[in-house]
Amino acid sequence: MDITSDQVVQLGKNLLFFNNGGKNAAWMTKTSSAFPEKGVEDYYLCGMTLVDTASGQGLGFKAEQTNFDSKYINFQDQKTSMACADNVKVLAIGGFSGCIFQLWRDEKGLAWGTHVYKGVDVNADISLAAKAKGWTLLYSIDTAGKGKDGSEIFVVAVLGPKNADIISQRVKGGNVKSSSTGIRFTIGKRHQSRAS
Fold first, then answer.
1. Distance between CA 184 and CA 71 in Å, rounded?
2. With the C-alpha atoms ordered 132, 80, 163, 151, is the resulting torsion angle positive or negative?
3. Residue 52: which of 18, 17, 15 has the closest Cα?
4. From CA 28, how far away is CA 8, in angstroms rounded?
């Protein structure tokens, strides 16, 4: 399913969620070869799906081994979990309650989404090592203090050939509490950050 950032925002107003549906064969996990100390490639291959709700259509990311068009990045305790947009143009990450989302471009020009663990015990930031390897930080959002009333931050990155749209929404039980559309930026330009 092709989707635009405007559609993510519109559909996400009603419902936004991830469901592995017991399809663990769609789950990929391995130690990052680029960042073996802090990084883990940990994600589900997903098919985006429209879901009917009482208030209108919502957007789901459902684990799918063969007909996938997106990746959902998992949380890893005390690590940076990551996924490359090598064969998809949408990366989704939920469960943020104080960690950091970052979008990187590696030395080959591929985009990577990351869920950077940030706790009182450790910060799994890969920034220094990534920059030393020639990676460029394209976008970063620290979600500390953004989740309220038991809600979490759900981030969707829609990647184009020259730009990316980052959408962050506060959700509770899949229901969106508030949204901000982030910013549009050109991949390869200066690093841009926005706290929303």
1. 20
2. negative
3. 15
4. 24
Residue type at 94 in one-letter notation: G
Q: Are strands 56-63 and 16-19 parallel, antiparallel or unpaired?
A: parallel
At 104-134, the pLDDT tens digits run: 999 999 999 999 998 777 778 899 999 999 9
Q: Residue 188 above 70 pLDDT?
A: no
Centroid of chain to Cα 60:
14
Q: Name the phi and psi angles at 148, rounded to 5.
A: -125, 150
